[in-house]
Design goal:
alpha+beta; 5-stranded mixed β-sheet; 4 helices
Length: 162
C-alpha cells in the first residue's frame, strides 16, 4: 500500500477523472444492465462540471494514484438534509470507485476515511452515501467503516401487457 498516494484532484486531472468515472459507469452497466443506462448513452460529467466540483471549497474529489495513474476516486459534496430528516449539513459521497485489479487493497477505505476527515475539519459531523442493495461488497465495506442504514428504497419492475 506504500505505493498508493491519496491526493486532492487538480484541474489538470479533469480528463483522467472523467475517464475513470466513465469506466465506473461501464462496469456498473455490465454488472447490472437492468439498472444502469448503457455507457454509449451515458455521457458522464462534463469537464466543466468536474472543474466546478474541484474548485468548490465545500466539495472534495480525492484520487488514489499509483505511479501517477488514477486507480481510485471518491467524489463528495456538502449537502443539506430535508424532511423528514433533520435539516442539517452533511457530506454526501456521490461516487466511490476503485479499478477492479486494485480492489481488496484498502484503497476505498483510505478514500472514505480521508473524506470523513475533510468534512470533520469543516465542522460537519455526518457523512452519507447511497448504495444499491445488491452491491454486497460495498455494503460490507460501508458497514465495517461505521455507516448504518438510514433509508431503504425498494422497487418492483412490472411488465405492461399490450
Amino acid at each position: 500500500m506504500k505505493d498508493i498516494v491519496i491526493r486532492k484532484a487538480r484541474n489538470k486531472d479533469v480528463d483522467d477523472i472523467r475517464n475513470i468515472l466513465l469506466l465506473n459507469h461501464k462496469e456498473d452497466y455490465e454488472e447490472w444492465p437492468s439498472i444502469y443506462i448503457p455507457p454509449d448513452i451515458q455521457k458522464g460529467p462534463s469537464k466543466k462540471e468536474i472543474r466546478k466540483n474541484i474548485s468548490n471549497k465545500n466539495n472534495i474529489i480525492l484520487m488514489a494514484c499509483n505511479n501517477n495513474n488514477i486507480i481510485g476516486i471518491i467524489v463528495s459534496e456538502l449537502s443539506e438534509g430535508s424532511a423528514p430528516l433533520k435539516k442539517k449539513e452533511y457530506g454526501l459521497i456521490k461516487r466511490l470507485y476503485v479499478i477492479k485489479n486494485q480492489r481488496e487493497r484498502g484503497i476505498a477505505t483510505k478514500l472514505i476515511k480521508k473524506t470523513k476527515k475533510h468534512y470533520n475539519r469543516k465542522g460537519v459531523d455526518e457523512v452519507r452515501l447511497h448504495v444499491f442493495g445488491h452491491n454486497k461488497q460495498a455494503l460490507k465495506l460501508y458497514t465495517k467503516l461505521g455507516f448504518t442504514y438510514l433509508v431503504s428504497l425498494m422497487t418492483d419492475c412490472i411488465h405492461i401487457r399490450r
